[in-house]
């Protein structure tokens, strides 16, 4: 049940049964020579729709641009500054909270969003308090990172070992291959991939990680793996959502 | 060619041939008892992809939440405040401009975005000037409203006369029916629909337009009409894009 | 009745009879070789005072600096960034709304203000809602562009044809000549004036429009024309104000 | 020489001889039962024009709304929040600095502006530094408060003793009477006027100073006094301007 | 009684007896060749603790970074921009006001903070009003500059005459020597110290005041003087606090 | 070596040998019935000074107020909103970066700061890039949480088992007892302490954790433990700093 495919009256009805909503958040950033720029948004949205279906929850429109400043030395990357993402999330949640939503379950596809998103939650609780919204103290936000699901993590380890890496990983590439089989890319991948550098600014990042990958070998990804990851993530996050809304 | 389905190296190659990009912008807001909340984003994205295909242009990720504060008294509507949308657009365009993009062609699905988007363009030109980006004086932004295309407007008039109205219109509903035939909604529509009130704040809007429609009869929409609108808009905006990038 | 020339007790009395106020907004920007930098503010203020007199309305202090970033490559131009103008308008209206004003009728002299001003209205409605001001849902803002009055437009067409142009127009110059006959300027004007370029950033604007005019021949202006424009605008905007406050 | 009455080419010429400009700043706020709401702007503007004439300096458009939050419990008062006034001043000065102006001489009519204006100067120096404007280290801002001119202060003391008070003073009322003899107001004034309370928030202010005056007896003002104050202020500030631009 | 050394339950108890709190504010900025970078914070904190002890008042954590943009051309100086300091103070006071504090007595060690701090007070009164906090109209803020205490000023004059200067003064250096006898610094001091230049931006400041001192001879300072200044300031500010909280 | 106890010339000299600086960041927030409100700042500062001594590094002034919005329903807690903390950190680091510092090692005492601080780092890298500061791509920021040091964690486990909890922990209380033996507090502690609730807004937090502790038994703390934690943290963070600055 996508919010975008509902009418407002369907939302009104939904709110009589539930005050929870799922919000996919991804990013628009380089994912190495073969990874799609939309990888993080694609994975988050795909999995969120699966969770929404399984749990009968409304899925809000995907936040497809996130906090990816460190990737912006690669063409095609788009990032918000943290303060922008915070006010964006605040406005987004305030609109929903005024309508009666109280529980916001973010399904996140990008590690770089986590810090700013948590900051945004704190800011939003405070903002809703200052608006004197009824029952605003019931507002709850949660980030669920699909790539950190226990079973997902295990499978990635099993399939790829330390070639999973930490950016442009075969697991996330696999999910995009499952979601968009017609957009599977190939390119020569230097087997000697960079790894282990901490992340600072954009130019520094590109110096450290010249082709954008962080220790990963995305050539190992297959659409079949993608489906497995998808199913595991949907399963685990559906449970997690269920606990969250109680 | 969707930016989300490209690799960064494909974008790098694209930039050797073109410095232009198409950006769909919609909104997440009530569209009357039968219109989808995502109508404006769905239409903008669908048409933008058509234009991108026809003109070999990259299409950036859809801005699916816009300036819809006046709709926020209806559940399911989500809006940014204008200052938020301005910094959002500024960050978004700055990322692309740093990579070498210079021409930003927005395909817009929501009248309520126009003012703020124009303000954002002014702010962005000034911001890029202050960054001393090379050739920043070549940066150009343009809003193309698909619903204001000459042929689209004519067809809407022919098909619906004054039942086209100005919000939750049969023409936009038709395009969503074409895009998502499985999400066609029906509901009783009061034939005595409100019309002619100026737009002020959210509560005032809902008082004036109790079911969300502004003078429209979306029951007239069909997916076939939607396809016609789609084709006319793609045709006209492709030309418009062609002129813009010269 | 200028707010600046009232006491607070006179305002208190006024508020027992009316909750409406007229706010002139102009700009401080180049107007070609012979146009005054204050043209837009001068016209807006002059006409607003005329409307105020005719309708017994209070006229607030003129916003004499507006959104003119695209003119700032010409010396003497002063502009706010859109986000600044938005918070400026928000603060300005919030002060008045707290005192009981509910209807804000802007008389505008500068096309470049329109987008940002509309964005500011949306932001202000939302802000007043968040303040829980009593009856804030009755707050209404309206922009009336004197230069778009039907009769004004007709007269400009009759007097100047396509030499009216769209910036540093003879009609606006004429109104300033009527308002400040001692400040009528002359300078050689290239008959081959630029026209038809879309507006982007400041440097681009000056490249396209080297002397600041956009397709206009301000040498046609006379103070007598100015008076005619003034009278037509006052007439039409007084009616418009009357309808607005009902 | 008012900036508003110049053409951009006249400004260009002026900049070959001087990089200094005078900026009047006032406020829009209650001035007791007989003082005009525009008192501070009227005085600042009137005196600034006198100084401009005497020193051949350009006078920029008056900032007619300032920092007057503590007066906003009286109807008709309009105030910016300090952060708004700071970005307003920053944008205003940045436009002028880009054109080549380097010395900004503010003639101020409102004590409540001083703190925020000084803060704005600091912020602007830093901002212009971050823009890498050529010779930005030569940018200088100065506030000259006409009401603190030595001779003005002496005359007020001589004429009014301690009935001068500190808000809605006979001296500032006198200057407005000189400037707008047709707008001289009378009203019963309680001889037992409040005095000596520190200034906190708006409601507190109105509790302490119920009719808006702070220890003053504006009934002593005459237009003739106003002219004397005007002349003394113009004399002293012209000298002060002369020293500033060296 | 330092807030940092209390438990929240001790604060709760305190609030049953008093709604006042002392807040030391200093700066982190160069103080000439022998003055400590923390001078302003050290003095403010030391004296605030003395006042707190004498008056049984809670002392909040020191704001150790202030508005010192003009000192930032000297290494080690740290400054907030005015808009940052304003929101910092607003957040800080809002937290305390929500808990029941109403009277905020700032003990300030840096002249450069005064303007921005006063602006922050105005902004905070307005903000608390917009939050509808109970009895927010009782919120009062006051700046007490220890270096402007009457007796302090007299003693500095007696001890140092015009070698007191106005930055990196022997009096403030003496207080730091008293507070941190182990951190007394010596360095050659040019007897021909700069004086009398107005303060503009950072580069200009360093050009005018090459070693950071403004007309002062800090070599005259002794820890014994420091103790005297400390005691005079504590005495006078304790009285001042007593009057403030009545 | 505390920045506050240096002269600017000592900093200048330091910069010829090192471009790194240690910045303690804590919080001002309730720490249960016996924990000091300044706990997080006290621990961070104490340990930072130890690390500074051991590594010959300059220690900047402590950020003693952090992101603690969820604690603000307890009196005495003070918090910045995340957007405020971000601009605060940005301004703070920008000042230091302009002087030549490039490596910023934060020693953090509060888990609630981590997200916002990481967001602030991203924003600052981007900001310094936009300033075109020389070698800005060498700017590096790192958060080191003393309470997450391996040995610290082990010792806490050994000494307290699961009575360590996650807020108002005996380990942090112990460090404050070591730092301020005269400020050791006792109070009855309910043995049935709350635990396991996720953190949302301030009112919700206080409902879940009525006395402020999260699963901890701070009565187990002793000053001797505090010294042990202190020494382990200094040891480990000194190494960590050494690796960071290479």
Q: What report would you give on this structure?
A:
6 copies of one chain form a homohexamer. With 246 residues, chain A is an alpha/beta fold. Chain A has a single domain, classed as 3-Layer(aba) Sandwich (Rossmann fold). Chain A is built from 8 helices and 4 strands. In chain A, strand 1, helix 2 and strand 2 form a beta-alpha-beta unit. In chain A, helix 6 crosses helix 8. The radius of gyration of chain A is 18 Å and the shape is globular. In chain A, 66% of the residues are buried.
Please provide a brief summary of the model.
Helices cover 46% and strands 8% of the residues of chain A. Chain A is built from eight helices and four strands, in the order αβαβαβαβαααα. In chain A, helix 2 (39-55) crosses helix 8 (223-245) and helix 3 (82-99) packs across helix 4.
- Give the rounded overall mean pLDDT of chain A: 98
Counted up, domains of chain A total: 1
In CATH's first tier, which class of chain A applies?
Alpha Beta
- If helices are DSSP runs of H or I spanning 4 or more residues, what is the number of helices of chain A? 8
Q: Greatest chain-chain interface?
A: A-B, 54 and 54 residues
* CATH topology-level fold name of chain A: Rossmann fold
The gross shape of chain A turns out to be globular
How helical, in percent, are the residues of chain A? 40-55%
Head-to-tail CA distance between termini of chain A? 20 Å
The largest β sheet of chain A comes out as: 4 strands, parallel
Beta-strand segment tally of chain A: 4
* Main structural class of chain A: alpha/beta
Q: Using the CA coordinates, give the radius of gyration of chain A.
A: 18 Å
Question: Low-confidence stretches of chain A at least 5 residues in length (pLDDT < 50)?
Answer: none
CATH architecture of chain A: 3-Layer(aba) Sandwich
């Amino acid at each position: 049940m996508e919010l975008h495919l509902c009418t407002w009256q369907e939302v009104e009805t939904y709110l009589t049964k539930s005050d929870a909503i799922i919000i996919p958040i991804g990013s628009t950033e380089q994912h190495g020579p073969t990874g799609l720029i939309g990888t993080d948004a694609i994975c988050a949205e795909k999995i969120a729709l699966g969770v929404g279906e399984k749990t009968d929850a409304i899925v809000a429109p995907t936040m497809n641009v996130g906090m990816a400043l460190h990737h912006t030395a690669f063409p095609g990357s788009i990032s918000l500054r943290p303060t922008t993402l915070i006010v964006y999330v605040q406005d987004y949640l305030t609109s929903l909270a005024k309508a009666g939503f109280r529980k916001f379950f973010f399904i996140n596809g990008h590690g770089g969003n986590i810090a700013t998103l948590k900051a945004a939650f704190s800011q939003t609780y405070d903002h809703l308090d200052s608006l004197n919204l009824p029952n605003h103290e019931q507002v709850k936000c949660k980030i669920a990172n699909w790539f950190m699901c226990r079973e997902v993590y295990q499978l990635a380890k099993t399939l790829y070992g330390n070639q999973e890496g930490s950016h442009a990983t075969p697991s996330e590439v696999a999910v995009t291959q499952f979601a968009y089989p017609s957009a599977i890319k190939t390119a020569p991948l230097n087997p000697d991939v960079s790894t282990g550098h901490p992340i600072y600014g954009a130019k520094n990042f590109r110096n450290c990680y010249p082709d954008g990958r962080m220790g990963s070998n995305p050539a190992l990804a297959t659409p079949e793996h993608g489906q497995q990851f998808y199913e595991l993530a949907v399963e685990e996050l559906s449970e997690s959502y269920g606990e969250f809304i109680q």
